[in-house]
Write a structure and sequence with these properties.
- Strands 13-12-9-7-8-15-16-24 form an eight-stranded mixed β-sheet, sandwiched between helices. A seven-stranded mixed β-sheet has the order 6-5-18-17-19-20-21, sandwiched between helices.
- Helix content is 32%, strand content 23%.
- The protein contains 21 helices and 31 strands.
- By secondary structure, it is an alpha/beta fold.
- The chain is globular, with a radius of gyration of 24 Å.
- The two termini are 27 Å apart.
- It folds into two domains: 21-508, Rossmann fold (3-Layer(aba) Sandwich); 528-649, 2-Layer Sandwich (GMP Synthetase, Chain A, domain 3).
- The chain binds 5'-O-[(S)-butoxy(hydroxy)phosphoryl]adenosine.
- 5'-O-[(S)-butoxy(hydroxy)phosphoryl]adenosine (WT7) binds at residues 269, 315-316, 391-394, 416-421, 442, 503-505, 517, 519-520, 526, 529, 531.
């Protein structure tokens, strides 16, 4: 386990917070009995439960069967036809909602745009026609590598409209990462921007795309949004400006009827090996999962102004900036830039300005807010807020309490939502109208989610025993495969525990039945709520000419949750690298993977501690990285002097 610090602190956490009765009275799920009966029905008769709920979506052809096949080959709503774009856009045009704001967008420099559902429909239809003109057909993959601008949501929905499968790559990833993902998905087109704004600087997206295209040859055309106005290279017959293409295109585009299981998107995420996994989600089940959880967990109402601060490049942005809330006809706030630009009060300024009522962010951000000081939120009017959410990593009780007091003003329920790229939608979370929340617990499973905490052998554990968090029943928004590697899909998620889904987290259930997720039990790091595999960083390091061997581990980091510590042995005789080599290695990893993989510590060592069978002793390295005196049995160490040396260098 990597998060042992938080296990300790949450074990002692006993505080409980009940929702205000006014909140409960108006909530979508407003009584314990209602939850219990929904949960039981979903468990006993999932086809009946989800079949009924499917009426919340607009179908083109009704489905024939709700669930077919056993996990992991479960298919949902087979025989049905549906279109996600139609559900998120067109169906809101028949009422007054047509002129309701769908997206309230704020750029980092302070420029703003409002798109009503009618505007969104027009822009999406136009861009769908642009894609068609560029040769994109139903089933083709389209890469989106964009800043947080409305065109990103427009491009996603345009893909969904014509059944092209989008593959979004977070703008913080490097050119190499873009090339790898383009190649794996065999993307035909890439949509990007000249750049985006981040802390007052231009993120050079188009030049990264240019570089990626020297290594990814399936991409035929590039569409470029002009955002920052910086100089970019435009290659004739390959690169096109978004505004040129949009200036002369039919604003009408019929939605394409798609099978329920039509691939909606691929999203790459880190696993415990070096190669990112292309998590594939399909249309109907994903849409139903995100639609219902948005309503249950965020208690979305017609008049809410909802802001999820995640970048659309992550699953949180896919599900809870775009598909979930728009399917519900909500108004979402979308912000382009950093939380501390031009100053540390930017988020609170946005909440005050738009009168945000639901705010969903990550523990790493909350810890940064705490550090920046209470005067920032205190100087803004946050009275519009009625619900707060947290996602991405276990939230430490101190951060939870600060969020509750300072931002929620002890009035707003906090939903600590546990889920994953693979689960598509929130799985375990308080329901804001009924749950007694506890700082650090994501509490109970949503209807349709049947978790269990088991030992490595698969035996169910008693209350308060830590074990593996698994899912015993399929749910509609679960991943269907890893793109191009169905074997790896089965192996990764369904081979650890017989008959169950397991994706890497450890957890315990307390005596009340509330779940406390303790963090990953595999070699996946959670850095600022972002997933990163230790092997990815290791293979990047060993690709550097000076490096012989590398071992990467996480360590507790005040803001990021987990920091990245790299133990490196060099090819030359000396075990100590110079400061300039350290800077060079850091740059090298950033260039190969992206800024999110920036190592926090590089430590040189003559050799890595290994067992007699040659396995790197990661647990030991984790203890050293964390500055903990290791209690591990080290008798299998190949060379005890290595351990002594690594410890000594700690004092340096
Ligand atoms: C991993 C999934 C989908 C959320 C964004 C991250 C950790 C996520 C929580 C939470 C404790 C959490 C888990 C999970 N995680 N939310 N509320 N409490 N841990 O998605 O990149 O697919 O990462 O994030 O370890 O496995 P992701």
């Amino acid at each position: 386990m990597t998060n042992s610090g938080s296990i300790q602190s949450t074990l002692q956490e006993t505080r409980k917070f009940l929702p205000a009765s006014e909140f409960s009275a108006q909530a979508h799920i407003s009584s314990e009995e209602q939850y219990q009966s929904m949960w039981q029905k979903a468990k006993d008769d999932p086809a009946g439960f989800w079949g009924e709920l499917s009426q919340e979506l607009q179908w083109i052809t009704p489905w024939k069967e709700v669930i077919s096949g056993e996990m992991p080959e479960t298919r949902w709503f087979t025989g049905g036809q549906i279109n996600a774009c139609e559900n998120c856009v067109d169906r809101h045009l028949t009422s007054w909602r047509r002129n309701k704001a769908a997206i309230l967008w704020e750029g980092e420099p302070g420029d703003t745009r409002v798109l009503t559902y009618n505007d969104l429909h027009r822009e999406v239809s136009k861009f769908a026609n642009v894609l068609k003109k560029l040769g994109v057909n139903t089933g083709d993959r389209v890469t989106l590598y964009m800043p947080m601008i409305p065109e990103l949501a427009i491009a996603m929905l345009a893909c969904a409209r014509i059944g092209a499968t989008h593959s979004i790559i977070f703008g913080g990833f490097s050119a190499d990462a873009v090339a790898d993902r383009n190649n794996d998905a065999q993307a035909k087109i890439i949509v990007t921007a000249d750049g985006g704004w981040r802390r007052g600087k231009e993120v050079p997206l188009k030049s990264a795309v240019d570089e990626s295209l020297t290594k990814s040859h399936t991409v035929q055309k590039v569409v470029v949004v002009r955002r920052t106005g910086q100089q970019v290279h435009m290659q004739t017959d390959r690169d096109y400006w978004w505004h040129d293409l949009m200036s002369d295109v039919d604003p009408h585009c019929d939605v394409v009827p798609l099978d329920s299981e039509h691939p909606l998107f691929i999203l790459y995420t880190s696993g415990s090996t070096g190669k990112p996994k292309g998590v594939m989600h399909t249309t109907a089940g994903y849409l139903l999962g995100t639609t219902m959880t948005s309503r249950w967990v965020f208690d979305l109402k017609e008049e809410d102004t909802y802001w999820c601060t995640a970048d659309i490049g992550w699953i949180t942005g896919h599900s809870y900036v775009v598909y979930g809330p728009l399917s519900n006809g909500s108004t979402v706030v979308m912000y382009e830039g950093a939380p501390n630009w031009p100053d540390e009060g930017r988020f609170w300024e946005i909440i005050e300005k738009y009168r945000v009522s639901i705010f969903y962010t990550a523990p790493t951000a909350i810890r940064a807010f705490i550090k920046w000081g209470d005067h920032w939120p205190q100087s803004r009017d946050l009275s519009s807020l009625r619900l707060l959410g947290s996602v991405g990593e276990p939230i430490n009780p101190e951060a939870w309490m600060w969020y509750h007091r300072m931002i929620g003003q002890e009035r707003c329920p906090i939903v600590d939502t546990w889920w994953q790229t693979e689960t598509g939608a929130i799985m375990i979370s308080p329901l804001p109208g009924i749950s007694a929340t506890k700082p650090g617990s994501c509490t109970r499973p949503l209807p349709g989610v049947v978790p269990e905490i088991v030992s490595k052998e698969g035996t169910p554990l008693e209350a308060n025993e830590g074990g593996l968090l698994v899912m015993k029943q399929p749910w509609p928004s679960m991943l269907r495969t890893l793109y191009g590697d169905h074997e790896r899909f089965k192996q990764t998620y369904f081979s650890t525990i017989e008959g169950a889904y397991f994706a890497g987290d450890g957890a315990r259930r307390d005596a009340d039945g509330d779940i406390w997720v303790m963090g990953r039990v595999d070699d996946v790091l959670n850095v600022s709520g972002h997933r990163l595999s230790t092997m990815e960083v290791e293979s990047s390091l060993v690709a550097h000419p000076a490096v012989a061997e590398a071992a990467v581990v996480g360590f507790p980091h005040e803001i990021k949750g987990e920091g990245i510590c790299c133990f490196v042995t060099l090819k030359t005789a000396d075990s100590e690298g110079s400061d300039s080599l350290t800077a060079d290695l850091i740059q090298h990893v950033r260039k190969q993977i992206g800024a999110l993989a920036t190592p926090d510590k590089i430590r040189y060592t003559a050799a890595l501690p290994k067992t007699r069978s040659g396995k790197i002793m990661r647990r030991l390295l984790r203890d050293i990285a964390a500055g903990r005196e290791s209690v591990q049995d080290t008798t299998t160490l190949e060379d005890l002097s290595i351990l002594a040396k690594l410890r000594d260098s700690d004092d340096a």
